[in-house]
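During the second year of the project, the team shifted from modelling isolated chains to modelling whole assemblies. The rationale, set out in the original proposal, was that interfaces cannot be judged from single-chain predictions alone. As a representative example for this report, we include one of the complexes processed in the last quarter. Its constituent sequences, exactly as entered into the pipeline, are reproduced here:
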Amino acid sequence: MSSEMTDTTDETLIETGFSVETDRGREPTDAEGIVRSEDLSVYYGNERALEDVTIEIPENQVTAIIGPSGCGKSTFLRSINRMNDRIESCTVEGELTFHGKNVYDDDVDPVALRRKIGQVFQAPNPFPKSIYDNVAYGLRIQGRADEVDLDDAVERALKGAALWDEVEDKLDESGLDLSGGQQQRLCIARAIAPDPEVILMDEPTSALDPVAASKIEDLIDELVEEYSVIIVTHNMQQAARISDKTAVFLTGGELVEFDDTARIFENPKDDRVEDYITGKFG
Amino acid sequence: MSFRDGQELFADVDLGREKFLNRVFHAVLVAASLFGFVMLVLLILDVVWEAYQGLTVFQIDPVQFLTQPSSSRAERAGFGASIVASLWLMVLTAALAFFIAVGCAVYLVEYASRNRVTRLIEANLANLAGVPSIVYGLLVLALIVNDAGLGSVILAGAIALALLIVPIIIVASIESLRAVPSSVRDGSYAMGATKWQTIRRVVLPQAMPGILTGTILALARAIGETAPLIMVGTMLHATRYPDGPLSSFSAMPTQIYNWTYQADRMFNGLAALGIVVLLAFLVAMYVIAGYLRKKYEADASLTNV
Ligand SMILES: Nc1ncnc2c1ncn2[C@@H]1O[C@H](COP(=O)(O)OP(=O)(O)OP(=O)(O)O)[C@@H](O)[C@H]1O
Ligand SMILES: [Mg+2]
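Output from the structure prediction step:
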């Protein structure tokens, strides 16, 4: 784990080196999760990247996915919105349901699925278009640009992504002219503009400086009022700070522990998880 | 033990030979690149000198030269009809070649699965781009001019030139399409865009400057092509302005060619002036292409922040 990502302003460091703010103002729900997987295995060719993952991800909460490099975190994320379909060698076994429907059924169109499950990538990837057109992209391709007030939708998404104040006078400038942190918030605005139900984030702050990263963390805290957020991160303080639930994957693509974040960081059941989060492993 | 100067410290390292070789190769490479430059300068000087001769010795009036059609009598001959014919050729060639070439490139990059057939097609594109241009002229002469009975008209010439540059544009377009980073495509697909929406709204706009640059450079090649037009058949003298794609014609390079072997020496002066005009067109096209490329590179470098 990189030490420069460590947030030194965090006063409540406990022996393990992690602070856990347990009162998130949200109670863990027992309701059926919005995304569930059942014995999900994913292969690249003959290589298995995920092994029999069974997990139930709650609605309107932040679920963090942590684990060492190469353990299949991104693979799991991509199997939720079927971005894995874009990788030719990739095959999926088992079940992954969204609102109880297996997304790998023949009658599920990945294009439709992705309109309900947005994604933010590790490296900001705005389109080479204006800021406005970037945010309006989702509504336009979904043919909803005429139904809604587009200007209003763009403004709301940019406000939701805490970017509005910085760009309100230059909406027609290229999204590529923004700083890295602004670009990432632009990508978040782009993802939330069409109002999906789930937002997947794959290490969204790893390319950013601590200030930009903390802005995005605050943002995630607000997003979760309306969306279910699943975030992959290598930064365990970050996972501890922002998530309600934490899933720990270990090498081999195995989900070893999934529980309330506080429990994972204070009192993990599995020794390997303890080793991993205290930095002895991985 | 400490050393006072570098010479003493590195006394056991002998770089003399390597440094000598370095200098020799440097000199050879400079000479080689100067050769090309010197030849270009000589060429331009020669053309300018000849053109100057035409203007002074034969008293060619530049305005008449640029506006009048050609004539079998040198004193009355101008280049205007050939310039217009070349413009017609450019427009028709671009219209014929651009959509076919870009469509083909989009198919190969975005749709075709990477198997032996597509690899074969791609390898053959490079070969097609190297086919001597007269071959395309012969093909059009046989199929379009004679069999289809179109005759020796501008459209037939444009078809020959389009065949010539389609592979060039395809190769340039494939390169620009491949240069669009996959992260941007992923961004579009993850928003729930279909393949066509992704291509049309994200991939093509980003690749377009590169595609246009390639197209303009290909057109610059086409505008100077002589052999395929001679095969298709051109007028000895472009004695009237073309009034559409179905007119007979003589374009700039063929008119220059026809002037050079006339007995009257004044035609040589006309040819030299014609070459100056043709070169001006080429330079203008290169400038546009260079401008687009520069703009494109500036944009592309920003996508990698
Ligand atoms: N496109 C691919 N083709 C083949 N193998 C892949 C591909 N993507 C990932 N893999 C393999 O699958 C395994 C899991 O990769 P994945 O990217 O999901 O790991 P990760 O946990 O996200 O790692 P990181 O923290 O480094 O991002 C790795 O062994 C990797 O080599
Ligand atoms: Mg990853």
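The domain at 32-125+196-277 of chain A is CATH 3.40.50.300 (Rossmann fold). The CA atoms of residues 178 and 258 of chain A lie 37 Å apart.
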